[in-house]
Structures are given as C-alpha cells and as structure tokens.
Amino acid sequence: MPTAPVDHQLDLTTQDVLTYGSWGLTLVLLGYAVHLGRKERTPFYTLIVLAAMVAAFAEPLYDEGLMLYFYSTEGMYTHFTAFGIPQPIWTHSGYAVLYAAPALTIARRIRLGTLTRNGLFAWAGVELLTSCTFEMIGINGGAYTYWGPHELRVFDYPLVIGVLEAAQVMLFAVLAALLRERVRNPLGLLGLFVVFPCTFFMANFGAGAPVIIALHLEDTSRLLVVLASLLSTAFAAATVRGASLFLPPAAGHRETAPVDGPGGFFRTRTAAGIPAAGPVATPTAAK
Question: Strands (DSSP E) along 148-221, which ranges?
Fold first, then answer.
C-alpha cells in the first residue's frame, strides 16, 4: 500500500497562483452575488458562496477518503491539520470558484425557468472541464496529488474525481433552488450551510463509494480500481439524471421572478400554448 508523500516539495509559485488567483476570483464572485441579491432582494446568492466556503473545513474527510495530499513542506500557507493532512488556505476560495460559482448560475437559471434537463447535463460537462483544468494545474504544478492507486488518469488527474465533483455541484444547485422556492423567509436560506455538505458527501462518498473502497482495499488491483471508477462514474451520471428530473424536459415552461412590489417575488409560469396575456401569478414570500 502506498503512503502519502509527506516529504514531497511544495512548489511555492503554484501555491501563490492558487492562493491569490482563487481568492481574487472569490472576491469578484462575492461582489457579483451581493449585486444579484440586492437586485432580487434576497441573500440567497451570497449564502451559496459562503456555504461552500464554510464547508471547506470538512475537506480533510474528502482527502482521507479519496487519498489526496497537499504538499506541506516549508513555506506552505496552512491554517489547520486533520487526519495528518495540512490544509492550504486556498481550499475555501477554491470551493467558492469551483463549486459555488456554477451552482449560483445554475440555481438562478432554474429560478428563471430557463434550464432544462439536458441543460443540466451540459452544465455538468462544463463543471467537469473546469475541475480538470483547475486540478491539473494544481497537481502538475506541484501543490498536491492524488497519491493512491487511482487509475484512468489524465495528466495525473483521476477523471473519476472530476465526474464526482460535477455530480455534486449539479445536485447542490438543484436542491438549493428547491430550498429557495420553499422557504418562507430569508432565515430559512441558512439551510444552504447544511445542504452543501450533505450534497458534497452524498455525491463523493455515495456515488464515489465503489472507488473509495477499491482504493483502500488491502489487496486491491489495477483492474478492480478501474472497474470501481467506472461504477462510480455511472453512479455520478445517475445522480445528475435524478437531479434533472426536477427540471422541465424541454423549453416551453418559464418561471420569472420579478422583484418589484411590496410582497416580494411573484412567480409567473408561461406554458407553451397559453397566451402571454393570461399568466397565472402566485404570490410568495420574499426570499
């Protein structure tokens, strides 16, 4: 069984790129979230970003399960260690950029009724490409590694990791949108701080269970890890498929959320074949 590369030298340049780059993007994202929140009179978007950033404190659980190690030689910017894995300070901003940013956009499109089931799969593809890009930079730049007996790697990045991350973001975005529809006051949106870790570990430790077990088996094999990775990939695809069932199958139904008026949001559903002059409006509480 391989052991974590605790003595591997950390590339300080890559650390600076990941730290300053991701935190810079996070500040921009937070500004955008606040702007949308003021426009729609809701803390929803800001809370999505903050929920993802707070959830990064549970990153060591993920690292232990999927055998990720952040190189921690002299010069590492770290704020705590758990399971023997020092955590870099850019994990929080990384969660915001990789997970919260697409989830915010997807949830807003769901709210507006412009996202279909196939559209959710398209977003999953975008998230997969984004995760591959971000992680390949970190891995090949010398910031961290997936050190276990992973298979199906591209530039040392196990593709099953990106698939699981994509499934997790899609699931979070859909459930966040559903939560927003059902809460009666802004305080209820604090549930996002619970929804994020639940969906994060549901996808990564649920759909990812086969590959996690295969990685940690005492007498594992390359074939077993490959088969487990493919099975986890199938489970992740099923997760996205399940989440997509909450969305319309095709364009034709639209939900808008104007913010003018003292009552807050009014949902207007316009179905194909129904005259635009006769919408059905249902008042809801401001959220």
Answer: 153-154, 157-158
**Is 7 in a helix, a strand, or coil?**
coil
Crossing angle (nearest 10°) for helices 222-244 and 209-216: 160
For residue 2, the one-letter residue type is: P
At 105 the three-state DSSP class reads: helix
Q: Which of 210, 268, 258, 266 is nearest to 234 (CA)?
A: 210
How many Cβ atoms from other residues are within 10 Å of residue 93's Cβ?
Answer: 25
To the nearest 10 degrees (0 to 180), the angle between helices 44-55 and 12-40 is 150
Beta strands in 192-273 (DSSP E): 253-256, 266-271
Q: Which of 63, 64, 53 lies closest to 89 in space, CA to CA?
A: 53
CB 267 within 8 A of CB 254: no
Residues in the chain: 287
Per-residue pLDDT of the chain (287 residues; tens, 9 = 90+): 678 999 999 999 999 999 999 999 999 999 999 999 999 999 999 999 999 999 999 999 999 999 999 999 999 999 999 999 999 999 999 999 999 999 999 999 999 999 999 999 999 999 999 999 999 999 999 999 999 999 999 999 999 999 999 999 999 999 999 999 999 889 999 999 999 999 999 999 999 999 999 999 999 999 999 999 999 999 999 999 999 999 999 865 544 444 433 223 334 343 333 333 334 344 444 44
Neighbours of 142 (CB within 10 A): 16
CB 192 within 8 A of CB 261: no
Backbone angles phi and psi of 256, in degrees to 5 = -115, 155
The identity of residue 189, as a single letter, is L
- Single-letter amino acid code for the residue at 64: E
Fill in the DSSP letter of residue 78. E
